[in-house]
Amino acid sequence: MSRSLKKGPYTDERLVKKLLNLKPEQGKIIKTWSRPSVITPEMVGFTFGVHNGREHVNVYVVENMVGHKLGEFAPTKKFLGHGGKMAKEQKK
Known about the structure:
- The protein has helices at residues 13-21, 85-91, and strands at residues 29-32, 47-51, 56-60.
- By secondary structure, it is of the alpha+beta class.
- Strands 1-2-3 form a 3-stranded mixed β-sheet, with helices on one face.
């Protein structure tokens, strides 16, 4: 379920403050733990270090990402594959 249109998209205030002090050309990585923050047009061109529970995953923001959340681009689980004995035999 999406957020109310009356409230607008959620973006962490501290994250916005960090953006105002930097320029995209500097190439500095902005570390954040705020996975539910919505990507706004002001964020395009910046690189964010989004925490996935274990480490910070570098996410370079492009135009197509606007409206999505930062956490969508930093997966929290590593997919190892389905199967058991049969899958191992088929790999060989």
